[in-house]
């Protein structure tokens, strides 16, 4: 397979870092974006410090990528934050921060990526959602709402960008032992897992496997889809 140029947001830890390492091992060139430094060192890895919710930061990142690489094959919008609170007790500032990072960050980076993606013969956009959307999880109103917006955005982009040869899909991970859920109690995690058809924690490899499916050239007719891990329907 020919090496690809792959951009991953939220690349410094968790799922994002695992994806960076996965694609570097496959020989791809990876552009990582996050608000914190990365400890990954590779000639094929370029890391940018940026807040995905800031339009100016996105413009700077894409201007540099265009200058360095000239084209982009894949955009994976993984950057996200969560604040677990009861709806009635959720501070408005938290809601705005969650929506800005999870939804606006995805919106901005997708929009900025279009011109570079159009140059690729197998252009792909993959957005990260969550099983909190279909499960309507109590205590995650703002987080689930932001990711529900990401799913709607994904489906509409699939229709609008299909004529450019760009597919747009999403993945909804079930619980994975990353920093994102480190503050969630074990009892709550176990209760969530019991609502899945496959009653166990997912692994980072489960996400990379699904990403590889979306990126496969033979998946060129797969777009506008959201696949949840764990058997959520």
| Beta fraction | 15-25%
**Rg, nearest Å:** 17 Å
The assigned structural class equals alpha/beta
Shape: globular
Strand arrangement, largest sheet?
A: 3-2-1-4-5-6-7
List the secondary-structure elements in sequence, H or E: EHEEHEHEHHEHHE
Question: Helix tally?
Answer: 7
**Could you tell me the number of beta strands?**
7
Helicity, as a percent range: 40-55%
User: How would a textbook summarize the main sheet?
Assistant: 7 strands, parallel
Overall pLDDT level:
93
Oligomerization: single chain
Cα-to-Cα separation, first versus last residue = 33 Å
Residue windows where pLDDT falls under 50 for at least 5 positions? none
How would you describe what is shown here?
With 233 residues, the chain is an alpha/beta fold. It has helices at residues 14-25, 55-68, 92-117, 132-135, 141-161, 186-193, 204-215, and strands spanning 5-9, 29-34, 45-49, 74-77, 123-128, 166-172, 226-228. Strands 3-2-1-4-5-6-7 form a 7-stranded parallel beta sheet, with helices on both faces. Helix 3 links the parallel strand 4 (74-77) and strand 5. The longest helix is centred in the middle third of the chain and has 26 residues, at 92-117. The chain is globular, with a radius of gyration of 17 Å.
């Amino acid at each position: 397979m020919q090496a690809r140029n792959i951009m991953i947001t939220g690349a410094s830890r968790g799922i994002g870092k695992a994806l960076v390492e996965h694609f570097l091992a496959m020989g791809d060139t990876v552009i990582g974006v996050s608000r914190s430094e990365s400890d990954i060192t590779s000639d094929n890895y370029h890391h940018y410090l940026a807040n995905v919710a800031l339009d100016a930061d996105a413009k700077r990142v894409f201007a540099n990528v265009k200058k360095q690489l000239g084209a982009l094959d894949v955009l994976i919008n993984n950057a996200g934050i969560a604040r677990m609170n009861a709806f009635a007790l959720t501070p408005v500032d938290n809601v705005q921060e969650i929506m800005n990072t999870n939804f606006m960050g995805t919106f901005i980076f997708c929009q900025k990526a279009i011109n570079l993606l159009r140059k690729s013969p197998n252009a792909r956009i993959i957005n990260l959602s969550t099983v909190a959307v279909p499960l309507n999880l109590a205590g995650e109103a703002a987080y689930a709402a932001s990711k529900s917006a990401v799913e709607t955005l994904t489906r509409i982009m699939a229709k609008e960008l299909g004529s450019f040869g760009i597919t747009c899909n999403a993945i909804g991970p079930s619980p994975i032992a990353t920093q994102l859920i480190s503050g969630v109690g074990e009892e709550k995690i176990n209760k969530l897992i019991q609502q899945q058809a496959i009653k166990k924690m997912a692994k980072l490899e489960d996400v990379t496997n699904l990403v590889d499916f979306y990126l496969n050239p033979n998946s060129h007719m797969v777009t506008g889809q959201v696949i949840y891990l764990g058997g959520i329907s």
